[in-house]
Structure formats: C-alpha cells, structure tokens
Amino acid sequence: MKFYLNFAKFVAGGINPLSGPIKIQWELTYRCNLRCKHCHLWKVKDEVRLPLEKVKEILSELRTLGGRYVSFSGGELFLLNEAYEVLSHAKSLGFKVAANSNGWLMNEKNAQRLAQTGIDSIFFSLDGPREIHDWIRGVDGAWERVLAAIENVKKAGERPKVFVNITLNKKNLPYLHDTVRLAVEKGADGVTTEPVHRIEKYSPEEDLGLTREDIPLLKEQIDSILRDFPSYLPHFHDYLRMFPAFIEDPERVKKSFRCIATFFSVQIHPNGDVHPCPVAFKKIGNLQEKSFKEIWFSREAEDLRREIKAGNHPPCWFTCVGPANLYLSYVSKGKFFKLLSPSFLKYVFREKI
Fold first, then answer.
1. Helix H or strand E encompassing 164
2. Quick one: pLDDT band at residue 199, thresholds 50, 70, 90?
3. What are phi and psi of 195, to 5 degrees?
C-alpha cells in the first residue's frame, strides 16, 4: 500500500517519501581488472569497503523499509570473494536482484555459481565489435571474454536472464545496430543502452562524448534498432527516442520532468556513502556512521529532495532513472495517451528486472 501512496504523493508534488527507496543501485567495489576509457573508477586507490556482515545488515534494513529492486555493480563486482554470497542474500530477502559485470571472470564454473544465487538478471557490458570494444575497455581479449560470459550464463540455466548494456559514445555510435544484432545472435535476452556521461565520478576521455554533430547518426542508429529489435529493448521506446534531445540540450530535457532520485531510488558506494544517483553530486550520509533509515529520513535528505524538485541537480540520462523519470512526467502532466503506446505497455507489464 505504501508504494501506491508514495506514487500518489510524488505525482502530487510531495517531498518526503513514506517509505525507503524502491530501487537501490549499490557499487560494492571500485576495483576493476579493465581500464575503460569512459570510466576511471579503477584508478581509485586504498579503497574502503563495508564488511560483508554490514552489507547484509543494510540489505535487511532496506528490504524492511520497502526496497524491491537492488542492482549490484563495481568496478568489477566479481573480483570480490563475497560477491556471490551478497547476491544470494539479497535474493533470499525477496529483492529482485540484478548484477553488472564486464564478463571477464564469468567462466563456466562461475556461471554455475551465479545461477545458484537465484538472481533475476545480469548485465554484461558490450561496446561494439572486437577492436572497438577492446580499445574502449583498455584490455585485449575483453570482447572474447564477454561473449563467452553470455554463452556460459545462458548454458547454466534459465536464471539469471542475460542483458547486454552498451555505453554509447562517439567511438562506438556507428556500430550500435551491429552491436545489438550481435548481442541478440549470442542469445542475450535484451539490450539496454545509455549515452556516456561527462561527470567527475567517471571522468570519460574528452573525445568520447557525443556532441550535436553526432545527432543525425544517433537518430539513424536509434531508429534502426527500434525498427529491427523492438522486442529486445526492455526500456520503453520514448526513453531511447530522447537521446538526441539529451545530447542537444540536456538542461532542457532535465526541466521536462522531476527526477525520482532520493525519493524512489538511491545509490550506495563501497565505503557506505549514500548518494541520490549515479551522478553522485551530493552525499547525504554514510552507513558506517548511521543507519539507512536515519539517513533516508534526515534533514539533509529532505533538503536534497527540495533541491531536486526545484531542478537544482545535474542532468543525466542513465537507464536506472531516465525511463522512470519520463514515465512519471507523463502521469503528472496528464499525458495519458503516451501510456497507451504498445512499447510503454510492454515496459510496464513485462517481468521487472
């Protein structure tokens, strides 16, 4: 019931949720075995991480507060010895659980271990054909490893479902359609994509960012995957169609909706820092110092929600918040005709990841 009351409160303009976040993005480590050109988290030294028992304790609290979906990532999640235990524990609590990986370590044995956790979905990063992917990922052989990872997990059982995520940038944009086709041919259950973001946390190389000159090709590539692979694109299609508008004028796109961050979703970092979203533009507390409930219902969190509602936050178009932001903007602005489109209805009623 609180979920629906929260939904109504948000649409009506309310500031403070009645329960905890529905969706949690949790980076368990910054350690990574690749050297990606669009993400420099692997450069973080002297990483501080929450101990396993503390992670389990926080997950239990999040579930009690109303959490439904939790997505774990890194760095490279599976560099951690405890990764599979964390996934299993989250699933045992009743979460819908997803994991994100570069696939390097997902051999047949580890794919079997992954299947035994019972999680719902895993997302492997695939950024183009062999030469492009390996260049972006900074390590030769990364392309072969991720394709093998997809195959190994598919052979291990019906769960988890396998998704491919494409971080779209200037280097791999011409190959978007080919990359989606490759993922489908290799057996992926679906493909997600988002544009590379120029934010301090990831610090992508300057020449990777998409610019206005890329918009014609971007439109062409988006139209082609919507035409040829609609059933493999789990996010409703208006989210993808908004990519050119976001590249052209991210501030204008931001102003078209109220962001769900720190109301329905939250981001947790390896050391326990709590942020509103992947952009991590403001910290509202640390889980080594306070419980999640204390942080979530604190004055700092309330002030941040007011700032976000007022539009005082960086623009972004990440898959973890963009589709939901767009959906709630349709509801709050009475654009109900948008909610009757076939792609949107499929997005709403499909099995949630």
1. strand 161-168
2. confident
3. -75, 150
